Structures are given as structure tokens and as C-alpha cells.
Amino acid sequence: MAKYLAQVIVAGAQVVGRAFTRALRQEIQNSQRAAQARSTKSTSQQAAANSVSGITVQEALQVLNIKDIHDLETLNKNYDHLFKVNDKSKGGSLYLQSKVVRAKERIDMELKQMEKDNQTASE
């Protein structure tokens, strides 16, 4: 009985090990594809925009609590709310309010760049 139990445990461990290995390989491939996609964008333009605004697009999305950069309604709603909540005269934080403004500016810059890239590609 113990022999069969040991065989079942070994077989199960092998199956789990193969599945884990396969998932790991797939994750590595996906990561490499994502890195290639990021490198095809003009990294110099992104670096310049990051240095001007002092914030990355991902950080701006997190500050404004939005998932999609193209969801302008939610973007504006969250921006207005966060800006008003952090108003110094209402006891808010000037630092946080400036972070919200910088996040909105960075997303606006990215949207303008994407629009410019789309116009260039369609020509």
C-alpha cells in the first residue's frame, strides 16, 4: 500500500513540475515579447516626457486611479475629485495636489504623442 502511495505522490509531483516548467517558459516568452514591444516605442521620447513631467505614465495612472489611458471621462472625474480633495484651503496637501496635476499633465502629454504618432502613421 505504501509503495502505491509513494508512486502516486511521485507521479503527481512530476505532473506539477512539468506544468510549472511550462508556465515558467511561457511567462519568460511573454516577458521578452513585452520588452521588445516597449523597445520599439521611441524610448527617447518617453524619457524626455518623463523628465519634463517628473512622472511616468504608469505612475500617473496609479495616482489618478485609472486603468485605461483612453478613458477620458474617468480621468477627468478622478482628476477633479482628487484636485478638490487636496485643496490647501480645505485642509488638503499641496504636495498631493501637485502630484495630481503632474499626473494629469503626463497623461495629456502621452495622449498628444499617441495622437501625433497615429497621424504620422496614417500619412
TrEMBL record:
Instruction: Check the record and name the Gene3D superfamilies matching this protein.
Output: DnaJ domain
Signal peptide span: none
Alphabetized UniProt keyword annotations:
Membrane, Mitochondrion, Mitochondrion inner membrane, Protein transport, Translocation, Transport
The record, for InterPro entries, names: J_dom_sf, Tim16
- Major site of localization recorded for this protein: mitochondrion
Q: Which GO terms describe its cellular component?
A: TIM23 mitochondrial import inner membrane translocase complex
Q: Which Pfam families match?
A: Pam16
One example of a Gene Ontology biological process annotation: protein import into mitochondrial matrix
Give the record's membrane topology.
Answer: Peripheral membrane protein
User: Where is the protein localized?
Assistant: Mitochondrion inner membrane
| Entry keyword annotation includes Cell cycle | no
The parts of the chain that form a coiled coil are: none
Under the heading PANTHER family, the entry gives: MITOCHONDRIA ASSOCIATED GRANULOCYTE MACROPHAGE CSF SIGNALING MOLECULE, MITOCHONDRIAL IMPORT INNER MEMBRANE TRANSLOCASE SUBUNIT TIM16
According to its UniProt record, which protein family does this protein belong to?
Answer: Belongs to the TIM16/PAM16 family.
- Protein known as: DgyrCDS10452
- Which organism encodes this protein? Dimorphilus gyrociliatus
